[in-house]
Amino acid sequence: MIEYRMVEHIPDLIQPEEYEQHPEGRLVRISIRVDGGGVQVLGDAFRPEVLEQLLQTLGPDAIEQMLCG
Question: Of the four listed, 20, 33, 44, 66, which is most buried by Cβ atoms within 10 Å?
Fold first, then answer.
């Protein structure tokens, strides 16, 4: 079972200037880092449910989320 954690900050991968360029709201941006501690997948999306589904398919132990608004 995936643990969901709320965190205070996650870096933005989508900038406010890009909103106008994607009026359909389908932009998803992913960053993948591999280091000695493992693999970190960072994502940003206009539609959070799309990103959540994508991350869930990767089978992580935990997904960290940030409230925005």
Answer: 44
Query: Distance (Å, rounded) from C-alpha 66 to C-alpha 43?
Result: 11
Contact 54, 2 (CB under 8 A): no
In angstroms, the CA 28 to CA 49 distance is 11
> Residue 44 and residue 9: Cα distance in Å, rounded?
12
- Write out the two tokens for 21: 């360029």
Per-residue pLDDT tens digits for 7-50: 999 999 999 999 999 999 899 999 999 999 899 999 999 998 99
> What 8-state DSSP symbol labels residue 2?
P
Distance separating alpha carbons of residues 54 and 51, to the nearest angstrom: 5
Distance (Å, rounded) from C-alpha 14 to C-alpha 11? Answer: 9
